[in-house]
Amino acid sequence: MPLSTAYAQSPGHSKRHYNAQARPYYRGPVRFTAGGGAAFYNGDLGGLSQNFIGPAGSIGVLYMWHPGLQVGAEFSAFQIGAKDRLASRNEFNNLAFRGRNASLIAQVRLGLLRDNGEFADSHGSPAVLKPYLRLGVGGLLYSPESYEGTTRPDNGTTFLSPERNDYPAVAFVAPVGLGLTVRASRRVNVTTEATYFFTSTDQLDDVSTIHSGNAQHNDGYGLLELKLEYALRP
Predict the structure, then answer these.
(1) Residue-by-residue DSSP string for 50-113
(2) pLDDT tens for the 234 residues of the chain, in order
(3) CA–CA dist 126, 112 (Å, integer)
(4) Sequence-distant (≥ 6) Cβ neighbours of residue 7 within 8 angstroms
(5) Residue 187, SS3?
(6) How many Å apart are CA 10 and CA 19, to the nearest integer?
(7) Contact 78, 37 (CB under 8 A)
(8) How far apart are alpha carbons 198 and 175 in whole angstroms?
(9) Which residues contact 215 (CB under 8 A, 6 or more apart)?
(10) How high is the pLDDT of residue 11?
(11) Which of 46, 81, 176, 225 is the S-S candidate for 37 at Cβ 3.0 to 4.6 Å?
(12) Other residues' Cβ atoms within 10 Å of the Cβ of residue 85
């Protein structure tokens, strides 16, 4: 039997696994995550300086499948918005937008530093600081509203006719990010995470073919969050 798939029964764990160097480890535990932060837009209307930065929140679950590798899923809800990068030009007619969105992704976290505390034969504790790379794939439900103006919309804002009549619409997303986890206790981690989401749509801002956007380049967005992680067992 290959070492990577061998296992033995052990108290408190269902299976004992081994890596390619024959070091034993246990899978798990399950960790629940909850976070909040800010959302940023990148698309036809402008970059960071034109953003109406919006709130973001997420809940998720993680599971250590192998030392240095966690798998899981996450649901996020967030708001983005922006104004035209040059309000004096006529290309976009001084357009701005507000978008309310939700995403569901499958994700992996790849540890960037080895953590001997994740192995069953280690007598030490897991590392206090753990940087990681985040990758994933999923779906996005997006619902933008465009309008003429240079400030955030209010109760008196008149929104333009949408470019499509099926909002909220669905797009694919592919997140790529970096994070740093701080071990606060045996069960609790605190994580700072920055992720950019590539999308399959140019209409996160409702600015594409009809409203003189650039349909050749898809929109994207970023999330910057602070998260708490809680393990079901130490």
Answers:
(1) GB--EEEEEEEEEEEEETTEEEEEEEEEEEEEEE-SSTTSSSSTTEEEEEEEEEEEEEEEEESS
(2) 344 444 334 445 568 998 888 889 899 999 999 999 999 999 988 788 899 999 999 999 999 999 999 999 999 999 999 998 765 554 546 889 999 999 999 999 999 998 888 888 887 778 999 999 999 999 999 999 999 888 999 998 999 988 888 899 999 999 999 999 999 999 999 999 999 999 999 999 988 754 455 556 899 999 999 999 999 986
(3) 14
(4) 15, 16, 17, 18
(5) coil
(6) 17
(7) no
(8) 6
(9) 202, 208, 209
(10) 43
(11) 225
(12) 14
CA distance 89 to 222: 27
Distance, in Å, from the CA atom of 146 to the CA atom of 153, rounded to the nearest integer, reads 10
Give the H/E segment covering residue 172: strand 169-183
Predicted structure pTM score: 0.87
The label of the residue with tokens 């192998």 reads 66
Nearest Cα to 178, choosing from 160, 198, 196? 196
pLDDT of residue 85: 75
- Residues 6 or more apart from 223 whose CB is under 8 A from it? 37, 38, 39, 40, 56, 58, 76, 78, 177, 193, 194, 195, 197
Q: In which region does residue 125 sit, left (phi positive, over 0), alpha (psi from -120 to 50) or beta (all else)?
A: beta
pLDDT recorded at residue 1 = 38
Helix (H) or strand (E) holding 129: strand 129-148
Distance of CA 218 to the CA centre of its chain: 18
